[in-house]
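To whoever is on call:

I kicked off a structure prediction for a single chain this morning and the downstream step that reads the tokens threw a length-mismatch warning. I double-checked the sequence; it's 136 residues and nothing unusual in it as far as I can see. Pasting both halves so you can look.
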Amino acid sequence: MKKNPILRNILSAISVGVVGFMLLNLTFILDYLFHLAAEQVFGLFTTGANPEDVFPWYSPLIHFLFAVVILFISWLVFRLKIPHLSKAYFLTVPLAVVFVTLGIFLYRSPVTLFIISILITALLVYYLSKTKQPWI
């Protein structure tokens, strides 16, 4: 089975989808915990008031900070000497976080969201091709 490249690629693609989906769900749980922790920290300065009521910029800031945290963790993972398939698993998480964050901020302008998403995808494909990264 491992000697058949077509079957190996199909199984690899399926595993990337399945493991990436599980990692993405874990990321959403971590996002929830990140929001709870941020709410507790802001609660110290706002005497228990809901930070979203006191600071209109709170929610976008927390979404942006979480995206930065995920991108940093992903950068660290991609620098590790681990199998390329494992890196493909992790690639789904920062991409999904970036696309979801863009969707949150640009939901009122779907054309802009569509253009930026295509640009990000094209840049990623260009980067993978230019650096001759193995990808499925």
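Update from on-call: the warning came from a stale cache, not from the record. Cleared it. Sanity check on the structure: Residues 5-130 form one domain.
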